[in-house]
Amino acid sequence: MSQFAARWWENIRFAFNAMRAQKLRSFLTLIGVMAGVATVIMMVSFVVGFDRRIAEGFASFGTNLIQFQKFEPRFTGGPPPEEERNRPNLTLADAEALKRFSRHAAAVSPERYYNGAAKAGSRETNDVTVVGTNADFAVANERYVNDGRFLSEADVRKHARVCVIGTDLVDALFPLQDPIDREVLVAGRAYRVVGVFEKKGSAFGGSNDNYLAIPISAFDEQFPEVKYRSGEVLYISTVPRSTAVYDALIEEGTAILRARRGLRPGQPNDFAVTTTVGQLKSFRQITSGVAAAMLVIAGIALLVGGVGVMNIMLVNVTQRTREIGLRKALGATRRDVAQQFLMEAVTLTGFGGALGIAFGLGAAFLVRFTLDFQAAAPLWSILLGFGVSTAVGLLFGIWPALKAAGQDPIEALRYE
């Protein structure tokens, strides 16, 4: 072992001896550092897990989805502003125009929604999402059929009483049975099952498999009140032919709808354009704000811990004045004394940082396995937590170390 390494190891040993000699004071000092580092680890773990959950949720609606709708998307409660409520509703004619004139759209899916109950024989399930749509729905929303077939254009033209159901409905209405060609009652009307969706799982706390799709023509016949209400009555989902024309489809679709609505250049759109990419970006802005707030809290905890470190080190300098004088009398330089006390401060906060990392990782793993939440601490967050904790010791240990190094050996030996 080199002389340099031996000296640093000796300083670390002195640091642990000092911590053992002042257990209570050291522990109280460590609490602030532990809390700050644990907060950083838990914050990063939860933000990463939340980001993964949100990304998976939006991906379940289609990674390239571009949707035209009446209201702007919002993630807070309350009604939309009056300007949006006064916008004209989107219509099936708008969807047909997009389908006819768009060069970049691979699919155009008009969609109306209704929440109700579904029944088959003596079995019934509630809170079913009934969507009226056309043959493009599967491609536009990446909701493909696992068994049977999807709706066809002929079904829409003929107002056919057919449906495609999700796996939740299969489990609830047709346990241990093949649902194809069986009847499902939706609000009292019978629909023949022609297909079963692939299982999509849950997103945003709800199931993506409690779906029932019927031709939009049949939907408008059965639920005319949905078509004529003043709220959000029609969504038009589109996807580009390739990712290369993603932005071009947004511009093209916007231009087609603006022309149909007679909007002049300079007038704002009287409809909204939402994308999964844009909504994910908005959610990430929210999580970034939460993360920033948590970092401030962690910074305050680390500041408190740093002040505690400075305080305990200043007390150590006072209590060990004779030791400092003796070391200098035996040949220790100012640099040797400064390094010793600085290493003690860094060791103290580094140990607190290690405990904080352990606590933060433990909390993240507990949440991951008890709540089925994908909390995960990246390696960079662990290194950051430990690096910040040692940096706190270095920063707040400088003044006590310089004070110790500046002691006059003769005066220090006389100190009682």
Question: What secondary-structure arrangement, pairings included, does this model have?
Answer:
Elements: H1 3-21, H2 23-59, E1 66-69, H3 82-85, H4 92-101, E2 105-120, E3 123-133, H5 137-141, E4 145-148, H6 153-157, E5 162-165, H7 167-173, E6 183-186, E7 189-197, E8 202-203, E9 206-207, E10 211-215, H8 216-222, H9 224-228, E11 235-240, H10 246-260, E12 272-275, H11 276-319, H12 321-329, H13 334-370, H14 379-405, H15 409-414
Parallel strand pairs: 3-10, 5-7
Antiparallel strand pairs: 1-11, 1-12, 2-3, 2-6, 2-11, 4-7, 5-10, 6-7, 8-9
Description of the structure:
The two termini are 37 Å apart. It is built from 15 helices and twelve strands. By secondary structure, the protein is of the alpha+beta class. The chain has helices spanning 3-21, 23-59, 82-85, 92-101, 137-141, 153-157, 167-173, 216-222, 224-228, 246-260, 276-319, 321-329, 334-370, 379-405, 409-414; strands spanning 66-69, 105-120, 123-133, 145-148, 162-165, 183-186, 189-197, 202-203, 206-207, 211-215, 235-240, 272-275. The chain has two domains: 3-56 and 282-414, no CATH class; 88-270, no CATH class. The strands form two sheets. A six-stranded mixed barrel has the order 2-3-10-5-7-6. It has a two-stranded antiparallel sheet with strand order 8-9.
